Amino acid sequence: MVDLPRLIVPEIADTYGVSKDTVTKSWSQHPDWPAHVDKRGRFYEYDAEHIADFVRAHVQREPVTLEPTRLYTAKQLEDAGIGIKAATVRADRTRGRWPAPDDTANGVNRWTGATAMRAIEGRRGYRRA
User: Fold this and answer.
1) For residue 39, is it within any domain?
2) How many CA atoms lie within 13 A of 96 on its CB side?
3) Domain boundaries, position 37
4) 34 near 54, Cβ under 8 Å?
5) Measuring CA to CA, which residue among 82, 79, 43, 77 is closest to residue 62?
6) Phi/psi-derived region of residue 45, left when phi > 0, alpha when psi is between -120 and 50, beta in every other case
7) DSSP assignment of 41-58, as one string?
8) Parallel, antiparallel, or unpaired for β 43-47 and 38-40?
9) From 11's CA, which of 73, 98, 113, 124 has a CA 20 to 30 Å away?
10) 72, β-bridge pairs
């Protein structure tokens, strides 16, 4: 049996460029977060490979390309894989954190792909500055 390299929370945070709070209060609360394998000081140790698998599956987002002139509803944006739920788009819209719709025909809010891509690019990411 080969021992995998092990990481503790501060090392995980440094490796992935996020805060320790992101690891402890967000990532580790996910049901798919790997089980710890040991303890080092006051921190649990995790297999580095299992952490990398978790990050690939649940944190890293694949780039999404939307058709620039096509109109999308919030649900269609979610289904396109932008990494944001339709409910979040609607909630952010009411809070002024998402742009006004480009089209509201028949009472349906729709955004062009170009507008949605600008909004997505402007969102705060997971990584620390």
Assistant:
1) yes
2) 0
3) 6-58
4) yes
5) 82
6) beta
7) TTEEEEEHHHHHHHHHHH
8) antiparallel
9) 124
10) 111
Cα–Cα distance, 125 to 27 (Å, whole number): 14
Is residue 113 packed enough to be buried (19+ CB in 10 Å), middle (13-18) or exposed (0-12)?
A: buried
The per-residue pLDDT for range 18-28, each reduced to its tens digit, is 899 999 999 99
Please give the tally of structural domains in the chain. 2
Single-letter amino acid, residue 118: R
pTM of the model: 0.57
CA gap 36, 50 in Å, rounded: 10
Q: What's the rounded Cα separation, in Å, for the pair 89 and 116?
A: 10
Find the CATH number of the domain harbouring 11: 1.10.1660
Residue-wise pLDDT for 26-83, tens only, equals 999 999 999 999 999 999 999 999 999 999 888 876 778 899 999 999 999 999 988 8
Name the one residue in this structure whose structure tokens are 């028949």.
106
Q: How far apart are CA 102 and CA 113, in angstroms?
A: 10
Note whether 49 and 76 are same-domain residues.
Answer: no
Q: Are residues 54 and 11 in the same domain?
A: yes
